[in-house]
Design goal:
Chain C: Belongs to the DAD/OST2 family. The structure holds 3 protein chains of 3 kinds. By secondary structure, chain B is α+β, with helices and mostly antiparallel strands. Chain B has 8 helices and 27 strands. Chain B has 3 domains: 279 residues, 3-Layer(aba) Sandwich (Rossmann fold), CATH 3.40.50; 128 residues, Sandwich (Immunoglobulin-like), CATH 2.60.40.10; 42 residues. In chain B, strands 1, 2, 5, 6, 7, 11, 12, 14 and 15 form a 9-stranded mixed beta sheet that branches. The longest helix of chain C has 27 residues. Classes of the chains: A mainly alpha, B alpha+beta, C mainly alpha. Chains in contact: A-B, A-C, B-C.
């Protein structure tokens, strides 16, 4: 302890002015300051790279789910927290309504709501929309900081944390869900995820109730923010379990795990949407089981310390095993008997990728639930993906409790990311951390290591300085450097020469620059499109904004009754609710499969079948998305088969997927299309009047590249109300019942001047008598 | 109260200035083939004018003839007399499409046909839209060898005599609006066949079971493949569109003529006496119904409120603080009231449904959760309307519900009153608190025992601390040695 | 005493997890009880040895405990025993009378379990034998942490039971 007073003298001994700043007490401060500045810069970079969409387009909420979150936030801000909690939303899922307050993760809305009120309090009136738009970038800055802390716990090298921070800041895998305007649960959830992990590691390391309790608190926050909290719920017990199995049970683990579980479970149960799930559903049973196991092992350890007898220990051990088996059996029994809810469908689809396709088409229909294509890994993570295994390997070399965590995390997250595109998001943090560890190891090896002679001198000096956590880099390095490397040390091998140093450094720098370039390119090109507004290039290279969505939604807002119900496929439910402010039948919160199937049936059936369905659900307008004119491939005809499939799941006798394919099994829209296809409401609404845009017989669908039949479809139960500039959105008004009680086909025919020829038809066959 | 008084005064003023007996309007357009025909119906016109109608006469070829003016119907009612011989239709201003539009705009039409004149194809095709089929043979009329007027049609048997009390059908639960005393004479009637599907159609007068259609010009003895027989033939047909616009098809225009208003007829059945035809009374009733003097029901204000707490069983609606709320909670009791009144000559009177019929309220989301008969009462607040009320408990299902009163009956205007309300779930603070539930007490005790134990433990811990440190020191020393 | 299966039905994990600890801590913490109490408890393990052996071991454990344990740790143990009793009573009541207000049962039971776990943690942290594991945590810090954790726990439980 006395050594600390000698530190200043040691630093003054060095001659160069640079060394003054880099060594000793002042050096520590300087480095601390530098680190802070670097972190701030990283945070700024992280925020800045997410602002492409704001600059390119405007400050607008993106995609689908964010529109709901935005709408919910507005409700929260306008009506207060308690009203939000009890919110019964009568403008979605008409006419069922949705108990929104109890079926959402409120963390995101509450966060931005409190930011809004805080800024109000500070007399900074900021539009809630801007808070929502910029929340994700702001959180990404925090994530960078959290991953710095997290990595610093893993690695002794200070550069690892900084590298992890910058990787986390700009990795496209994370940017994909956190650009400005992407106001989604993941925006804050990833920050909470990383920070909870940091706290957990800290708790395991220190063994303090406080860190455990903080972990639980942030876990509770995470639960309130994202359904992906189940990942933490299973990862932490797994970590504890693996540690126990490795014979690494320690009182620290007991303290941190039990504190986290006891408090965290209670915290998660405070969220209305989660409720009793933590003790009812199988997803949470692992945590409970490990909690019991920890108790057992803790008790056994305690007894062991009290009892010297070896035999008795084996008895205890077998008892522990027995109880564990019995408890597990009990759990299985409970699951079978139905007390504990079985695994949710989404979970099954994690293990068996074909499961969802067969059993739950609604889950399989979501693009982000599809298995990941392998180029996506390179696209989203670039060079990190090959540094990642190296980093995991580094963890194996120095396998302490926290490294075990990284290894488990890496294995699990890699698997899940492979199964579901969406879970790439949970993989990104661990990839960044592992890659940073690997890269910092390389950099430390080649940048800092000086020739052995100097090194000795340095070591001497370093030994004089306090060898705490903030010791000089060289000192750290010498401890970090493995023996194997040290054994190969020889002045002749080029590792200390400037040539090899500069070569490696140059290579790494260029890799890093390439990485930055790639990240920027991906961010600006792939992830910054709001998808509400589309951009295209004109032949002269200038940007052309295609704003059909908003055009149509504003048309709805301006021209229809505030209570006019709009039927559309569920993808657009949130947007209609958010932008057009009109009630919808189904939306992206796909809680009621039957209701979605009803819409699917209405879309895929003949008009005569659809009309009663629409009338029963009081539909006033039907909205379809049609990309045929523009070549916009994400349109409803391309999603149509999912509607058919989902409807078939409920009404297998009335809707059959096979009927939409031609004899040769093709899905066609041209004159080869099956009669079922051509008579379906969706087909008719998509192509109604489309012929009129082209010379006779020349109508082309640019998405599917097929020529359309010469005679366009005829509509009788709905009438065209609006078609946007590029025909992307088409809105139809559902007609009322005919005033004279005719069916709509006859009424339309009459209006066109066709005379009815009823009598002649009636004369054939048996006479139908009127009974009254 | 003053407001109410003022309003009723204003209303009274309005009623007196309108002075029409129709609940809808007094402008009546009469389309007849020839001005000369007018005189044959003089009593009929007088009757109409006496009842406050302003008659405008036009011929189909009149260039001034137009059903619409500035896109709105120019007349409330239209009376079409049969077009003359040889005309193909009703002229360019009375095309079927225009007539359908006229009805869709809410106006009423009385169309009279005659077996004497051939029916233009345009009329047939128009009638087909109402699901009314006319004989393809355009000159046929209904004959009956058992129910004819033996004084005027001894040979041809084409003047049908029918009891007036059957007009409008005498079914249970159907308002008796059109029946008249006495006997009706329907000469040269055109019989129509009504479609089976349309609930909007009703036959006011059916042909007797022994009647059939027959074309006198075909000079045949027997008839093969007859168009329709018996009570499948409707002689006078009522059609009420969904918007309550009325269309009446009278098979025999002659029945409105002066000649048949005060003639005496004698039924062909042996032993029957000759008596005065009741055509005039029937014509009044028929036009009265068609032109919205009879069978007009309207819905007044709809109120619903929470029948709980301070509002329970309130009879005076004005004292309610929260009337017609847009949101209710599940499982609460709700009171629903609708005012219905019916038009009587020149003012609204309380409406009472026909015997063995009731106005029903549906509380529905996708399908009805409740379907209740509403109990009629009168209210002192509004003597012109009867109050239909129901009190019920909301279902245990949240969602967007409709209070839906749909009252569609033959010969009465359609009542369709829909009020949408949201039924929400229990709010977080509306569940019983744990300390209200007796069963929760053990666990509340458990918590507080734990907390008390914790506090006691902390106190003990802090109290015994100095000693601890000494022990600790000793242990440390022991360890150090 | 005959071997007694102290194990309840395996209907809930916390119970089966808590029970053995129950047995162990009652064995080690209640000074007034006679030493044959732990005998009954430890025979929950497969009974492959005779009663005498167990009695001997039990006595040894008990003597060991009385000699080595500090006063303060005994206080902790007493508190833990108290919590076990409370938890056991609640669980028993739940089995007998059903868990009708489920949230009340959960919060009551988990408050006790959580408190037990926190106390056990405190015991570990303040145990001199574990000094090496908890270098950075002084006893005052440990106690402060304990209070912090308990406060959060109580807040959640009271909030959950409303």
């Amino acid at each position: 302890m006395a050594a600390s007073t000698t530190a200043p003298t040691a630093s003054t001994a060095s001659s160069s002015p640079m060394a003054f700043f880099l060594q000793g007490e002042t050096g520590r401060n300087t480095r601390g300051l530098l680190r802070l500045i670097i972190l701030c810069t990283i945070a700024a970079a992280a925020v800045a790279s997410r602002l492409f969409s704001v600059i390119r387009f405007e400050s607008i909420i993106h995609e689908f789910d964010p529109w709901f979150n935005f709408r919910a936030t507005k409700y929260l801000v306008n009506h207060g927290f308690y009203a939000f909690w009890d919110w019964f939303d009568d403008r979605t899922w008409h006419p069922l309504g949705r108990v929104t307050g109890g079926t959402l993760y409120p963390g995101l809305m509450v966060t931005s709501g409190s930011i809004y009120h805080l800024l109000r309090f500070l007399t900074l009136p900021v539009d809630i929309r801007n808070i929502c738009v910029l929340l994700a970038p702001a959180c990404s800055g925090l994530t960078a900081f959290a991953s710095y802390l997290f990595t610093s716990e893993m690695s002794d090298s200070p550069s690892a944390g900084l590298l992890a921070a910058i990787f986390m800041g700009i990795a496209p895998g994370y940017i994909s869900r956190s650009v400005a305007g992407s106001y989604d649960n993941e925006a804050i959830a990833i920050f909470l995820l990383v920070f909870t992990f940091y706290l957990w590691i800290k708790a395991v390391k220190v063994g303090s109730i406080m860190w455990g309790a903080l972990t639980a608190l942030f876990y509770g926050y995470m639960v309130s923010a994202w359904g992906g909290y189940v990942f933490i719920t299973n990862l932490l017990p797994l970590h504890a379990f693996v540690l126990i199995c490795m014979g690494r049970f320690s009182p620290r683990l007991y303290v941190s795990y039990t504190t986290w579980y006891a408090l965290g479970t209670l915290a998660s149960m405070q969220i209305p949407f989660v409720g009793f799930l933590p003790i009812r559903s199988s997803d949470h049973m692992a945590a409970l089981g490990v909690f019991g196991l920890t108790q057992l092992v803790g008790a056994a350890e305690y007894l062991r310390s009290q009892l010297p007898s070896k035999q008795f220990q084996t008895v205890i051990r077998s008892a522990v095993l027995l109880i564990f088996v019995v408890a597990f059996g009990g759990l299985v029994l409970l699951t079978v008997s139905g007390v504990v809810a079985p695994w949710s469908g989404r979970f099954y689809s994690l293990w068996d990728t074909g499961y969802a396709k067969i059993h739950i088409p609604i889950i399989a229909s979501v693009s982000e639930h599809q298995p990941t294509a392998w180029p996506a890994f390179f696209f989203d993570l670039n060079m990190l993906i090959w540094l990642f295994p190296a980093g995991v390997y580094m963890c194996f070399r120095k396998l302490k409790d926290e490294q075990v965590f990284i290894v488990i995390y890496a294995v699990l997250a890699s698997y899940f990311a492979g199964v579901m595109v969406r879970l790439m998001l949970t993989l990104t943090p661990v990839v960044c951390v592992a890659a940073a560890m690997a890269l910092s190891q390389i950099l430390d090896t080649f940048l800092v290591a000086s020739a052995p002679t100097e090194n000795d001198a340095d070591t001497k000096q370093a030994n004089g300085t306090p060898a705490g956590a903030n010791g000089s880099i060289a000192d750290k390095l010498s401890s970090a450097l493995p023996d194997t490397l040290r054994s190969t040390k020889s002045p002749l091998v080029g590792i200390y020469s400037y040539l090899s140093k500069s070569l490696i450094t140059g290579a790494i720098t260029s890799y890093l620059l390439l990485f930055v370039l790639h990240c920027t390119w991906v961010t600006s090109n792939a992830y910054s499109s709001p998808s509400v507004v589309l951009a295209s290039r004109l032949p002269d290279g200038s940007q052309h904004i295609i704003d059909d969505y908003r055009e149509a939604y504003y048309w709805l807002r301006q021209n229809t009754e505030p209570t006019a119900k709009v039927m559309s496929w569920w993808d657009y439910g949130y947007q209609i609710g958010g932008m057009a402010d009109r009630p919808t039948l189904v939306d992206n919160n796909t809680w009621n499969n039957t209701h979605i199937a009803t819409v699917g049936k209405a879309m895929s059936s003949r008009e005569e079948v659809s009309y009663p369905i629409m009338k029963q659900h009081e539909v006033d307008y039907v909205l379809v998305v049609f990309g045929g004119l523009l070549g916009y491939s994400g349109d409803d005809i391309n999603k149509f088969l999912w509607m058919v499939r989902i409807a078939e799941g409920i009404w297998p006798d009335e809707v059959k997927e096979r009927d939409f394919f031609t004899q040769r099994g093709e899905y066609r829209v041209d004159d080869q299309a099956t009669p079922t296809m051509r008579n379906s409401l969706m087909y008719k609404m998509s192509y109604y009047n489309y012929n009129s845009l082209f010379p006779a017989g020349q109508a082309m669908d640019r998405v599917r590249g097929s020529k359309l039949p010469a005679d366009g479809p005829q509509l009788s139960t709905v009438e065209e109300a609006f078609t946007s500039e590029n025909w992307i959105i088409r809105i139809y008004k559902v007609k009322d019942f005919d005033n004279l009680g005719r069916n709509h086909q006859d009424a339309t025919a009459f209006e066109k001047g066709n005379k009815r020829k009823k009598t002649s038809a009636k004369r054939r066959g048996a006479r139908v008598l009127r009974v009254d | 109260m003053e407001m109410r008084l003022l309003l009723s005064l204003l209303l009274a003023g309005l009623v007196s200035t309108v002075a029409a007996l129709s609940a809808q309007g007094s402008k009546l357009l009469v389309v007849l083939e020839d001005e000369s025909e007018k005189s044959r119906y003089s009593q009929f016109w007088t009757d109409l004018e006496d009842r406050g109608f302003q008659l405008t006469y036009r011929t189909p070829k009149d260039p001034q003839l137009s059903l619409f003016r500035h896109g709105e119907p120019a007349y409330s009612h239209l009376l079409l007399l049969p077009p003359g011989k040889g005309t193909k239709g009703l002229g360019p201003n009375l095309t079927p499409n225009l007539l359908v539009d006229f009805i869709s705009a809410g106006s009423n039409v009385l169309m009279a046909l005659s077996g004497e004149q051939s029916i233009p194809s345009a009329v047939s095709s128009l009638l087909l839209e109402f699901d009314i089929s006319l004989p393809p043979d355009r000159n046929s009329m209904v004959v009956d060898h058992f129910n004819y007027d033996s004084s005027s049609a001894k040979e041809s048997h084409d003047v049908l005599l029918l009891p007036g009390k059957n007009a409008g059908g005498s079914k249970k639960g159907v308002a008796d609006i059109l029946s008249v005393d006495g006997i009706l004479a329907l000469p040269h009637a055109v019989g129509a066949v009504l479609g089976n599907a349309s609930p909007l159609l009703n036959s006011i007068i059916k042909a007797p079971a022994t009647a059939y259609t027959y074309n006198p010009k075909e000079e045949q003895e027997g008839v093969e493949d007859v168009f329709a027989t018996g009570d499948q033939l409707s002689l006078v047909t009522a059609f009420q569109a969904r918007n309550s616009a009325r269309f009446t098809l009278l098979g025999s225009v002659e029945a409105l003529q002066d000649a048949w208003f005060d003639t005496t007829v004698q039924h062909s059945a042996p032993g029957s006496k000759s008596e005065q035809a009741a055509n005039r009374a029937f014509a009044q009733k028929l036009t009265g119904w068609t032109f919205k003097e009879l069978g007009v029901v309207k819905a007044g204000p709809v109120t619903h409120f929470l029948n709980e707490g301070s509002q329970q069983n309130t009879s005076d609606l004005t004292t309610l603080s929260d009337i017609n709320p847009s949101i209710y909670r599940i499982n609460t009791e709700v009171h629903y009231t609708i005012e219905l009144s019916t038009w009587s000559v020149d003012h609204w009177v309380p409406f009472t449904p026909p015997a063995s019929d009731a106005v029903q309220l549906e509380f529905s989301m996708l399908s009805p959760f409740h379907r209740l008969n509403l109990a009629p009462t009168t209210t002192p607040a509004n003597p012109n309307a009867s109050l239909f009320t129901a009190t019920f408990t909301l279902p245990d299902q949240h969602g967007i519900f409709n209070f839906f009163v749909e009252y569609r009956r033959p010969y009465l205007t359609n009542i369709e009153e829909k009020r949408t309300v949201t039924v929400r779930h229990f709010a977080h603070d509306e569940y019983p608190r744990s300390f209200v539930i007796m069963a929760a007490y053990p666990w509340i005790t458990g918590i507080w025992t734990t907390v008390a134990g914790f506090v006691g433990f902390c106190a003990l811990w802090l109290y015994s601390r100095p000693e601890k440190e000494r022990v600790e020191l000793k242990v440390k020393e022991a360890g150090g040695r | 005493m005959p071997p007694k299966k102290a194990q309840p039905s395996p209907s809930a994990i916390p119970a089966s997890a808590a029970k053995p600890t129950h047995a162990i801590s009652t064995a080690s913490s209640q000074p007034t009880k006679t030493p044959n109490k732990p005998v009954a408890a430890t025979t929950a393990t497969p009974s492959i040895r005779n009663a005498q052996d167990i009695q001997q071991i039990g006595t040894a454990v008990w003597n060991n405990y009385v000699e080595k344990t500090a006063q303060r740790t005994k206080l902790l143990d007493a508190f833990m025993a108290f919590l076990i009793v409370v938890a056991g009573l609640q669980f028993l009541y739940c089995l007998l009378a059903g868990n009708y207000p489920f949230n009340a049962f959960l919060s009551g039971f988990s408050a006790t379990i959580g408190q037990f776990v926190l106390t056990a943690s405190l015991r570990m942290q303040t145990n001199p034998e574990n000094q090496a594991e908890f270098e950075t945590i002084s006893h005052e810090r440990a106690f402060a942490d304990f209070v912090f954790g308990s406060m959060i726990l109580h807040f959640f439980c009271v909030n959950f039971i409303n």
